[in-house]
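Researcher: Good morning. I'm working through a list of sequences from a screen, and I'd like to move beyond sequence-only analysis. For each chain I'm collecting a predicted structure so we can compare shapes side by side. This is the next one on the list. No need for commentary yet; just the structure.
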Amino acid sequence: MNIIQKTISEILDFGMDNYNKLFFPFILDIENFNIPKGINDFSVFDILILDSNIEILLNSLKYFCNADKIQFDERMKKIYIHDGYLDRSNFEEFSNIILEISGKVKPKREKPPVFKSEKHQDIWNKIQEGRKRTLEQNKVELCDRINVCEFAGDYHISMSEIMSWSLWRLINCYKNILEKQSCKDSFEIFLVSGDKNIIENKHWLGRIRIRQENK
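Model: Good morning. Structure tokens for this chain:
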């Protein structure tokens, strides 16, 4: 079972709104659901294969796996795609791969604490609203990443070249450019301050390595 990475051009032709909707099955967390007490062995996959949700999941799988025909075995609770299958045992791993190559993460839902008063609850709500606004303001769009990769590197990359990249490659280029610039900025601060901790063991080459050593 292969995951096919679309090019930036293909994604834009498909439409960003339509593309982002395809991630719905993979960003879900079991904590997003109110599972009745006493039911412990229940997964996101179990919820997605219910009659009301299965079509959403299948449409996403058709796109990401470039598969016209997908067979769902309701009795075995398996989804057969090409020469492989998806079930509750490997769905989480599959979801993580989809999110990783697309530069997306599962949103974390912060559980509200037990409030001592309405005033404390109001303060907490305002803090949450402020965080949400900050995230929205600092959100990096696809066009921002494209612009940085085209113009902010050591040399110009043509738009036609970028349009042929996968989203993962674009995100990787974007991150690497920011890492190199961050290291340059740190080195300039070191030259002024003399503080070795700013640059020690923080060379940009180590920070952009695909495979990081376990610490």
